[in-house]
Design goal:
Elements (H helix, E strand, L loop, with lengths): L12 E11 L4 E12 L4 E14 L9 E16 L9 E17 L2 E12 L2 E18 L2 E12 L12 H5 L9 E8 L1
Antiparallel strand pairs: 1-2, 2-3, 3-4, 4-5, 5-6, 6-7, 7-8, 8-9
Length: 191
């Protein structure tokens, strides 16, 4: 790229999520998780998923805003319509998948702690899975001033949507196409 060239990066993306849980009693609930994704970067022209879920909260639901330790499991279906042919020579497919999660959140006068572990895989090939861990702590140092630290680590073995054409050097540099990566991590500190 020379000094006279202008590079414009466009990466249109739409993400929509709906998570609804209906409580049965003080610990159990059931519901639905639905997603819609359209992403050039991830090679999805359309990705739709519908996952019925059941969850159990170790603490009572009445304490949900101050403390929760939720274990959930879902089993559902995902429809993928790909922008480009995938590394598995697919242009569209419908797959069964399942997921599980453990999420903890505790709010105290001094701040809050949030942690989670998340797993999902396709049922036709359990080796195609992802496993994620995340956590954050926020401290109320004094009124109007907070300190936060958090991060996540993801193990990814389910990138079935990757384009068989790969990515050019420019697409990599401009983050236009997703590459095969088996892990991802993030760490952040804020005030």
């Amino acid at each position: 790229i020379s000094d006279k060239e202008t590079v414009v990066k466009k990466n249109p993306q739409i993400n929509g999520y709906l998570n609804f849980i209906n409580k049965i009693n003080q610990h159990w609930g059931y519901g639905m998780f639905a997603t819609y994704v359209k992403s050039e970067f991830s090679n999805y022209d359309t990705r739709l998923s519908l996952i019925p879920k059941v969850e159990y909260d170790v603490f009572k639901y009445r304490d949900f805003n101050s403390q929760r330790l939720v274990i959930s499991y879902g089993l559902g279906v995902q429809y993928n319509n790909y922008k480009d042919t995938t590394i598995f020579y697919k242009t569209e497919e419908t797959l069964l998948l399942h997921d599980a999660a453990i999420i903890g959140s505790f709010t105290k006068p001094w701040g809050n702690i949030n942690v989670g572990a998340f797993y999902n895989s396709y049922l036709h090939d359990l080796a195609k899975y992802s496993l994620s861990f995340s956590g954050a702590v926020n401290w109320n140092i004094f009124k109007g001033f907070k300190f936060a630290v958090g991060g996540s680590y993801d193990i990814t073995h389910n990138l079935i949507q990757l384009s068989k054409d790969g990515a050019t050097r420019d697409e990599v540099l401009l983050q236009q196409k997703q590459l095969d990566s088996q892990y991802c991590y993030f760490f952040g500190v804020g005030i």
